[in-house]
Amino acid sequence: MKTKHLLLGLFMGQCILSGVMQAQWVQSNLNANLGRSLHSDGTTIYAATAQGVYYTSDMGDPWFSIGPQNDDIYSIVKAGNKIIAGSGTGHGVYLSTDNGQNWYQPSTLMNQSVYALAKNSTHIFAGTWGGGIFRSADNGESWESAGLEGKGFWDLLVVGDILYAASPDFYSRIYYSSDNGNNWNFGSLGYPASDPRGLFYSDGKLFACDMGLWVSTDMGNSWQIQYGLEFDSTGYPVNVKMFRSITKYNQYLIASVMSESVYISSDNGVNWTPFNEGLISDWTFADMEINNSNIWALRDFFGNAYRRPVQDLLATLDEQANTFDHFMLYQNYPNPFNPTTSITFKLPKSSDINLVIFDFTGRQIKTLITDRYSAGLHQVQWDGTNDSGNAVASGIYVYQLKAGNHTQSHKMMLLR
Questions:
Q1: What are the tens digits of pLDDT across the range 65-88?
Q2: How are strands ordered across the β-sheet holding 162-167?
Q3: Given 3.90.950.10, 3.30.530.20, 1.10.10.10, 2.130.10.10, which CATH number is that of 26-322?
Q4: How does DSSP assign 229-252, residue by residue?
Q5: What CATH code would you report for 324-414?
Q6: Which of 227, 191, 232 is nearest to 209 (CA)?
Q7: What average pLDDT does this structure show over 318-340?
């Protein structure tokens, strides 16, 4: 009888341990020196690395090395049965029609370092480092200039008919074209952004990864900081998070953050929480991707690839909600702002609340709410005026929400 109980206990312990081990990131057997980017076609996931292209069709055991040999590959895109790989060492692009058994190179892009690739319904685009944008209308066989000569690009993104290109010039310009690169416009992220590494689109927001996470709601014309960047009383940036890349599963955004590993958001990027079980919390991942039922993260140094079930997203965010007892004051948006910003908060139950704005010296300047609110999500706007109705000056302000025994506050910046 004791033996049966012992065996049952061991079995239950193994099941519990198995569940714990599955609810975290797991390293696969890719170790490719330096990781650059990931690309998924839905069934196969490709890794661009400093040692060429790798792919896996299962759980990353094994990864297969398919070349090109002795080249640093920064980007990959699939076009039909063709793999197109961008060289970061000035060798243009490599093409393969037999899953990497053989590669060849078109002569029209031979002297360019290709850091980013993207495609729409008619063209494939290559973002080079110093040579501008190139395009191909025949799946990479021949290329022509699409403008922006002399500029370098970290990432390209296609949203509908618009091509976006992220460049580290002039406070991080995001160029965009609606005619395949014949004409270009741009919007600038602004101070202190300087090195946009990733672009992403989700539910009406265009995201740019830089010093902080920047968003545009007018398809790239103007940009505001949304998360991961605040300013002290002198305007110096503090509490900075360096975003690298974003991907999405259902309503969840998953992002790599430099020296902070992986974060997730369930409210389209307004708030983020760490998603790092099984990782070293200060790692940097070059790229994120979804393939089948797993999230994949490719580390920059050492090139390790990690996977985690997408089902872990909901459990992690539910745990976060319980930690905050469902009481949440969100970061205002836009921020910085002029002249109006929105403040959102969530209540677990009906509560008497007090929402007040202070200047940076701690002096109360505006009472936005003193009332009883029902459970749920609520939003209020501040128009940059004080209790007397007069406009306040540019600067750092603090908004504070009290509800029952809970108090939370955030900083915001008004720019006149």
A1: 999 988 999 999 999 899 999 999
A2: 155-159, 162-167, 173-177, 185-188
A3: 2.130.10.10
A4: -EE-TTS-EES--BEEEEEEETTE
A5: 2.60.40.4070
A6: 227
A7: 73
